[in-house]
Each structure stands twice: as structure tokens, then as C-alpha cells.
Design goal:
Layout (H helix, E strand, L loop, with lengths): L2 H22 L13 E5 L2 E3 L5 E5 L1 E4 L5 E2 L5 E2 L11 H19 L4 E3 L12 E5 L5 E2 L4 E3 L6 E5 L3 E3 L4 E3 L7 E5 L3 E3 L3 E8 L3 E3 L4 E7 L7 E4 L3 E7 L9 H26 L4
Parallel strand pairs: 1-4, 1-18, 2-5, 2-19, 3-6, 3-20, 7-8, 8-11, 9-12, 10-13, 11-14, 12-15, 14-16, 15-17, 16-18, 17-19, 18-20
């Protein structure tokens, strides 16, 4: 094969791969650090449900104000820990949650959706924001999230999921991230994802959150579990859903192709073909 054709082919493959890498990197999971192991993290307080209590799969703590109430009857599923003081682990989790909030904000607006989540149809991995910044999942409505990639929802102000609503689909809850500019109120039957709110997060009576509730990236903010209990929070404290290795491999291949293309182009210039 002539050098010029070989060089052109290498550069074409490089361009295609580079586009693929750019697409794959369009939305990424924020680095959660120590906050990854938490199911519930407050800033000013964490209040568990009374009655039967809420079962949290993940650590529970609050920083800088370590006010923890209604544990028990709410409980932390082993092997996770209930942090009753503002210890070093909770302090670092607070720092890391704040950094994750900034990371998500920096990923941009992406696709702008209407605020009525019942009207958006089934969504696939991507970055999303909302027309007025206050998305609402109406009572008994369903939001469907399908696909194995990362979902980033940048909410400008408040997030509300009303009673009997559900977030469903094939998406891994640990791959879904909601950055909330003010407070989140989760009153539906099921909600999915890591909710990182600048202010407070309320998990209503009977509401189940598959993910994390990380409140108070701003000046203050509590996590409140309302109602008589019997519901659950957590399930993502063991790790992130999508490994980063495939992106690393793609970049290594891209660098390799850059090197091949450079030397082939250099050779074709130095030695004209006859």
C-alpha cells in the first residue's frame, strides 16, 4: 500500500477514534471520593424516620454539624457505619461531595428538557438540564431512564418527585447523578440516582431512593426522612457503576495512532514515492 494512502488511512482512523473518545467523555461520573461510601450525608443534620424507621445501605453522617436523630428506629445496614460525630471520615466526605457538585455543574447544560418529567419520554445516557430549572415528576407519573452509560441532570433550583411517582428503566441507579441547585423533595414510590443538593433533601413517607442523598453543598442543608418509615435509601456505596478503564484504553489507542500517523507522514515527506 502506498505510504500516502497508509498515512491517510491512519489519520482517518485517528479522527474517527478521537470523535468516539470525545463522545464517550461527554458526560462522566463525578469523583465522589469518600462520599462514595455514604448513603446519606447532611450538612446541618440528618433526621431518620420514626415508626418502623428507614434502612440506609451506606454510611450516614453530617458535617460540619453532626446532629443525627431518630437512629434508631432508622438503621444503617451493615457493614456501613453511623457517624455520630464530625470525624475525619465525615469531614472528607463533605469536602468530596462539594467537589462532586462543582464537577457536575461544570459539565454544562446539555439537552434542555421541559420541567414536566412526565412529558420527556424515555431518556438515554447524557447531560440534561431543564427549561426553568425546576423539574417536577407529577403524582403517579413515570420517568424512564434506559442505557448503561452515565446520566447527569443539572437542576438549576428545586427537584420534586410527587407521591406515587416512579423512576424506572434499565439504567444502573449508581450511574445517575442529580445536581440540585436548591432542595430536593422525593415523595414518589421509587427514585434513582445520587442526589447532590446545595440545600436540603427530603425523602418522603414510603419513598425509596436507590442511590445516595448528599445534602448541603452550600451553607447549610439537612437530610430529612419523613413519615412512619418502612422504606429504604442506598445501594450505591460499594462503588461506581461504570469503570473508567475503557476510556483510558481509547486514549491509549488514540495516542498510538497519533504516533503512527506522525512517523508515516514524516517518512512520506522525507522520501517521495516513485
Amino acid at each position: 500500500m502506498p505510504r500516502k494512502l497508509t498515512t491517510s488511512l491512519a489519520l482517518s482512523i485517528l479522527l474517527t477514534l478521537s470523535v468516539g473518545v470525545a463522545t464517550a467523555a461527554a458526560q462522566v461520573a463525578p469523583p465522589l471520593g469518600v462520599a462514595q461510601q455514604f448513603g446519606v450525608l447532611g450538612n446541618s443534620a440528618v433526621t431518620g424516620a420514626a415508626g418502623a424507621g428507614v434502612v440506609v445501605s451506606g454510611d450516614v453522617g453530617s458535617s460540619p454539624t453532626a446532629t443525627i436523630s431518630n437512629f434508631p428506629p432508622s438503621t444503617v445496614a451493615p457493614p456501613n457505619a453511623l457517624h455520630l460525630t464530625n470525624n475525619g471520615i465525615v469531614q472528607q466526605a463533605r469536602i468530596d461531595a462539594n467537589a462532586a457538585y462543582v464537577n457536575l455543574l461544570g459539565q454544562g447544560a446539555g439537552t434542555v428538557l421541559p420541567d414536566d418529567l412526565a412529558t420527556v419520554g424515555a431518556l438515554t445516557p447524557g447531560i440534561y438540564s431543564f427549561l426553568t430549572g425546576a423539574p417536577n415528576l407529577p403524582a403517579s407519573a413515570t420517568l424512564t431512564l434506559n442505557g448503561n452509560g452515565i446520566f447527569v441532570f443539572n437542576v438549576g433550583s428545586a427537584l420534586t418527585a410527587n407521591v406515587l411517582s416512579n423512576v424506572v428503566g434499565t439504567a444502573n441507579p449508581c450511574n445517575i447523578y442529580w445536581r440540585v441547585g436548591s432542595s430536593a423533595t422525593l415523595n414518589g414510590n421509587t427514585f434513582r440516582g445520587t442526589v447532590i443538593a446545595n440545600a436540603s433533601i427530603t425523602v418522603g413517607a414510603g419513598a425509596n431512593l436507590a442511590g445516595r442523598a448528599l445534602a448541603g453543598t452550600g451553607a447549610t442543608g439537612a437530610v430529612t426522612m419523613a413519615g412512619p418509615g418502612g422504606n429504604t435509601i442506598g445501594g450505591c456505596s460499594g462503588g461506581v457503576g461504570v469503570p473508567t478503564l475503557p476510556q483510558v484504553v481509547l486514549w491509549m489507542l488514540a495516542i498510538g495512532l497519533i504516533t503512527i500517523g506522525f512517523f508515516r507522514l514524516k517518512a512520506s515527506v522525507a522520501k517521495p514515492a516513485f
